[in-house]
Amino acid sequence: AVIGVVGLGYVGLPLAVEKAKAGYNVIGFDVQESKVDEVNQGINYIGDVVDEELKELVADKKLKATTDYSFIKEVDAVAICVPTPLDIYKQPNTNYVESSAHEISDHIHEGMLVVLESTTYPGTTEELLKPILEQSGLNCGEDFFLAYSPERVDPGNKQFKTKNTPKVVGGVTENCTEVAATMYENVLESDIHQVSSPSVAEMEKILENTFRNINIGLANEMAVLCNKMGIDVWEVIDAAATKPYGFMPFYPGPGLGGHCIPIDPWYLTWKAREYNYHTKLIETAGEINNEMPNYVIQRIMEILNKEEKALNGSNILVLGVAYKKDIDDYRESPVLPILEKLDGAGAVWSVVDPYVKNFKYKNDFQSPIESVTAEMLESADLVLIATDHSDFNYETIVTHSKVVYDTRNTINKEIKGNGNIHSL
Ligand code: SAJ
User: Fold this and answer.
1) Which one of 221, 289, 293, 420 has the largest count of C-beta atoms within 10 Å of its C-beta?
2) Where is the UDP-glucose/GDP-mannose dehydrogenase C-terminal domain (predicted)?
3) Which value does ipTM take for this structure?
């Protein structure tokens, strides 16, 4: 059988590789020529995909990529794995989903299975996708099958990958669910959990990520309060985590990054308005998380004041710009607003990141310094640990820095500084 994957990013490329490894012939579709070319040369641009596997699958003609969506007519099943971002008004932008649906609708044929994997508001599959696909004249549930199955890719997670992470599947009709579940059973080793509709599957994904967003917001609120009360919030969380049931630790940080957790809850907030419902908890957690960059700047000012220095004119060495440790993705990274606020306060900053090769800052690109040196540490008025990459040598950092502001609690207790380490 031939399977199509539309969107060759963090979700689509690993999925395409797994489907090819399961024995399907896979055609990957992407609008970006560069991604298509790299896949066809066996070059993987996603850390989680193993180079050799991709090379082999491409060489064996099990996997190819194209920008020509007319090849959709050759596939028996197609998974849509395109971005679902927010626009500047925090409104859902489903343009990529819609344009993919129109391409598929132009080339859909009898018996085809279409699965939407992108995280989106409940109702997208049945209200948005289904009508576009039925413009082909084919009927959903009879002539073609349509389901929603959320992706659960955790970039950088060594234990849970596409292949062994349980999958939820909800079809428009019973047989849509069956057909979609069967396809995933042939591709994945993990449990395939069937639900009664696409809306249930869409909503459960939003619940997963909103759960994280809100609990991180709670951790951040605790951090701000504990700082005022002179209580070590990290010690508090570790103590709470000794509870063996009913508690799960989340940690405070400089803010919420990534292309999912800060974004997905707002898809629900937007849809809830259609039902005259105000998602107060989601919005409050969002305000708390979005306030963290300001909190970081305020703490930096406090710490510099103790050294009788103003932030204005100070040299700030920022360690890490990626939105979380040991990955190269800086989308929505809280470090970006932190840099803007440092600029606004007249500070001089430079960024070190061993993973992120360059990042878009205001209207141009910045290239982070690959690795940190003793000289850089010594010449900084304050060293900000923004991303707790494993590659940083925290011993060296503490030894050579005048002042360290560790927003990730990475410096473990063994590394005794000269009292120059400040926590979030
Ligand atoms: N963060 C905190 N405190 C925490 C956990 C995370 O501040 O306790 C921050 C991180 O630094 C990061 C952001 O939140 O900036 C998001 O981190 P994340 O760990 O949720 O990672 P993502 O966004 O790469 O991937 C998540 C997946 N991660 C986990 O469940 C651990 C999962 O929720 C989804 O599969 C994925 O989003 C998605 O694509 O929806």
Assistant:
1) 289
2) 317-413
3) 0.90
